[in-house]
Structures are given as structure tokens and as C-alpha cells.
Design a protein that fits this description.
By secondary structure, the chain is mostly beta strands. It contains three helices and 28 strands.
């Protein structure tokens, strides 16, 4: 079973986080039971194991993002406590096939950074290549600048970034074949051909792009623009009002983006209410097997109108049209669960507790949380990486946080 990429971007405060390409949504910041314990449904068939644990930090160390190139190469970005500093600093970590260790990214990108501070950063991998996109802050009174870089097998090399206000999605299809979605309302996708970026116009506001084509076409998904609803939000932009969504997709035919219609969510049948939130992930399993997924927030959309019991929704491309689907693809669902090829969901046990401020696991340390910000597959395997933190909050002097990277094996 090939596990597709799972990402919630919790660290980047995504309000409608989707555990991408893998099926059912669950809380990415869940606090699962310790390894070997029971939490209903029988014994765990898989368990997370620590591959990297940072030093104890009282401020909030955590691993924010990860990109897996192969079974022997992966990259991660972490916010790690800086002794004597004012707070966590961004630090790149590298997996060389045997262990994780710090990597001096600032040395590689010294000229591109210009003495500034890199944050935030998103990592992306595909077709044996690794890329990063981020912002460089140059101090008070200045505007951040965009930075992009690729790993050339020896070091990170800066490339001219696309002229996008933000990076909403990335597909690395080859060393000279990279796509970047700009801010959705710009309706623009940028393509890297090895020499520069070319802007292409999208027929929709895209929120997701297929990170691999699996023998099919490259696709994006999002929604048809709704100017009237956008205007209604101008008075209170931080709390968007409920509105119907017209979901849409588009495929790249080699020359332009061709629009594809998706089921009208306002007319979805009673047995499946349709997606009333943005599609956050596209997963291509084949030319006739593409999944677009989001999280159903009851009758409304947006973080302000989120009732208890949110559930996943999925649309499926069968080679001819997009339709609703009650089934979901196999893969790791979240920090606690994995869906098998047979559709059955089994539990993933959490790793053992980590030591707190005393250097041991005390009774109060057993109240620690284990939170994953992102989960990605290990290419060519049934394994997965998870990144996040293990820590303790609201316990006074016992508070601590450790940045962690875990691995799940069958």
C-alpha cells in the first residue's frame, strides 16, 4: 500500500486542515495512547517510533514541516530553542539514510538571505528533487522578501522565486518541472522549466494541486470566484460569512488549464451532503483515479462555524467525470489511525513518553501531549514520517517542549 502525502499544516494555522490524500480526517494534534496501551478497537497494529528528539526547551520547540525525497533522504524544518536567545529559531534537519542531524542551510543560502531571518518555510519533494519556499525578514520597518531554493545533490541553491504573494501549493514533478500555486484569488499557477518561471492563468481559485500525476494529467482544484460573497466579507475579513461554494477543478493539457465541473454541493443527494468547504488536497492514483478531499463542516464553511463531528468529504475522478464518493483511499489518516486497502481503520500507538525537565519521565511528565503537524509517506514504502512536538503545558516549572520526528512502520 503506497501511502500518499498527509499534511495538516497545523503549525501554519490552517483553519480547515485536511489530512491529505489518505482518507478520513482526524485531529492532527491528537493525544493518542502510549505504545502498548489499549484505547478500544483492539491492540495497535502500528506504532510511532522516535527518530529525532530535540533538547528540552521551555519555549516551544517543534518540527514544522518535512519533505521525503526517498527512503534515504528527507528534510525537515524545525523551530528549536536557542540557549540564551529570545525564542526558537528556524533550523533545517537532514536525514541521510541512518539518522537526523542539523544542516547549515544559512551557509548555503547566505547571499539569498542577505543577513535576514528565514521564516516561514515550506518544504516539497518529488521525482527525486527537494525544494523550499519561504520568506526572509530583514528587520523592523522592512518588508519580507521571497526566497526559493532547490537541493542539487550537494547543497541548497537559490533560484529566483515566482512572483506570487504566497505559495498555496507546490508540485515537484522533476528537477526542471515544478508548479507553484499563487494566492487563490490571483488565479495564477507558476511553472519552473529549469531556467525561469512562467505564469499561467487558472479558470478558478485553486487551493490544491496534484503533487504527482501517476500517469495522468496535472490537476488543480478549488472554487469558482464569488465576488458578491467576497465583498460581504470586507467589513469583517477575519470571520468570513457562510456562503455556498461552487467547487471546480482544472487540468493542464500542455498548453493551458481546462476547467472541469464538480458536483453542485447545493444539490448533492441526501445520503452524501457534498463538500461545503474548500478542497484542500488532490491525490492522483492513476489517470482514472484522482481524489479531491476536504472537511465537511456541517451546513456552513469556515472556522467560525465549525460544529462538533466534522467529517471528511471526497470527490472522485473516474476518467470521465467528477462525482461524490462514500469510500476513501487507503493510508495514514492522522496521529492515531491508518486505513488499510480493505477500508478498515486500525489504530497507531504513540511512542513512549519523553523525559521532561528532570531528565526522567516523572508522573507529571506522563500528562504530556504528542502532536503531529505533518505526516508524509516514505517514498516506495508503506512507512510514514511524522513531525511535531512532545511536551507539557500548564504545569509550572515542569513545562517543556521537544521537537520530534517519528516514523511509522507496518
Amino acid at each position: 500500500m503506497s501511502i500518499p502525502r498527509v499534511t495538516s499544516r497545523v503549525a501554519l494555522v490552517a483553519a480547515c486542515a485536511l489530512l491529505a490524500g489518505c482518507g478520513t480526517q482526524g485531529s492532527p494534534s491528537a493525544d493518542p495512547e502510549p505504545s502498548g496501551s489499549r484505547s478500544g478497537g483492539g491492540a495497535a497494529q502500528r506504532a510511532w517510533a522516535y527518530e529525532y528528539v530535540s533538547d528540552v526547551d521551555s519555549v516551544g520547540s517543534q518540527v514544522l514541516d518535512i519533505a521525503a525525497v526517498s527512503g534515504r533522504e528527507a528534510w525537515a524544518m524545525a523551530a528549536l530553542g536557542d540557549p540564551g536567545g529570545s525564542g526558537p529559531r528556524m533550523q533545517m534537519l537532514r536525514f541521510d539514510g541512518s539518522r537526523w542531524q542539523r544542516y547549515d542551510l544559512e551557509s548555503d543560502l547566505r547571499d539569498a538571505l542577505g543577513g535576514g531571518t528565514l521564516s516561514p518555510v515550506s518544504l516539497h519533494a518529488g521525482a527525486g528533487s527537494a525544494w523550499l519556499f519561504g520568506r526572509v525578514h530583514h528587520g523592523p520597518g522592512t518588508s519580507p522578501t521571497a526566497v526559493a531554493a532547490r537541493y542539487d545533490g550537494d547543497r541548497w541553491v537559490a533560484v529566483a522565486p515566482p512572483k506570487a504573494d504566497e505559495v498555496a501549493g507546490v508540485a515537484v514533478l522533476g528537477a526542471s518541472d515544478v508548479w507553484v500555486l499563487g494566492q487563490p484569488k490571483q488565479q495564477t499557477a507558476w511553472h519552473w522549466d529549469g531556467h525561469g518561471w512562467t505564469a499561467t492563468q487558472l479558470p478558478l481559485e485553486a487551493h490544491a494541486i496534484t503533487t504527482e500525476t501517476a500517469g495522468g494529467d496535472l490537476r488543480v482544484a478549488g472554487n469558482v470566484p464569488n465576488p458578491e460573497a467576497d465583498k460581504a466579507d470586507e467589513t469583517d475579513p477575519d470571520h468570513p460569512k457562510p456562503r455556498p461554494l461552487r467547487l471546480a477543478a482544472a487540468r493542464w493539457d500542455g498548453r493551458q488549464w481546462r476547467a472541469e465541473s464538480m458536483p453542485d454541493v447545493e444539490r448533492a443527494d441526501a445520503g452524501f451532503r457534498g463538500c461545503r468547504t474548500q478542497v484542500r488536497t488532490l491525490a492522483a492514483r492513476g489517470a482514472e483515479d484522482v481524489w479531491a478531499m476536504g472537511i465537511e463542516y456541517g451546513p456552513y464553511t469556515g472556522p467560525r462555524y465549525t460544529p462538533v463531528g466534522d467529517r471528511p468529504c471526497a470527490l472522485h475522478w473516474d476518467g470521465k467525470r467528477w462525482g461524490t464518493s462514500r469510500s476513501l483511499p487507503a493510508g495514514v489518516l492522522d496521529a492515531k489511525r491508518v486505513r488499510g486497502a480493505d477500508g478498515k481503520v486500525s489504530r497507531i500507538a504513540r511512542p513512549p513518553y519523553v523525559a521532561g525537565t528532570t531528565g526522567k519521565v516523572t508522573e507529571v511528565d506522563r500528562k504530556q501531549s504528542f502532536r503531529l503537524a505533518e505526516i508524509v509517506p516514505v517514498p516506495g514504502t508503506d512507512e510514514a514520517w511524522g513531525v511535531g512536538s512532545a511536551g507539557l503545558g500548564a504545569f509550572g516549572e515542569a513545562n517543556f517542549s521537544r521537537a520530534v520526528i517519528v516514523r511509522c512502520r507496518p
